[in-house]
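re the bet — no i am not wrong, look at it urself. input seq straight from the record:
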Amino acid sequence: MRNRSGFSLIEMVIVMVIIGVIVGISVPGLSTWYRGRAVHAARDRFASAHGLARSTAIRYGRLSELHLDASANKYWIEVDTTGGRDTIGGIWQDPPVTFTSTRSLLCFDQRGLPSIRTTTASQTCGSPDVKVIFTVQGASDTVETTVLGKVLR
């Protein structure tokens, strides 16, 4: 009799089949979890952008605008800083996640309160309440803002 070390081919195949079954069972659950996390992260980024738009208006003492472009799936903040219009914080996009919005422009005055006046680009800010729905492959989440500018998740 020989002393053998290692595994036989049959033992290796059995282990690989067991691993395959475990992976096959867990992947659908993981992909659902991933889609849910992507939507929640997009929701949280939008809420942060909303807060940044308010604080930017206070910091510069000027009207701050939160632009929502659902067709291009992006949103950004603009403010007149010192003689020119600047984009604050960059342009946010969440590639796997799309969104729809009831408004395309939210404005905040020097005190950080929602404003409905006309901006420098002759756009009307409109009502400060907005409903934004983020979706990705069946998973969705909603952010709403009130007339006073409070974010509801």
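see?? The domain at 9-152 is CATH 3.55.40.10 (minor pseudopilin epsh fold). told u. also The longest helix spans residues 9-60. so pay up
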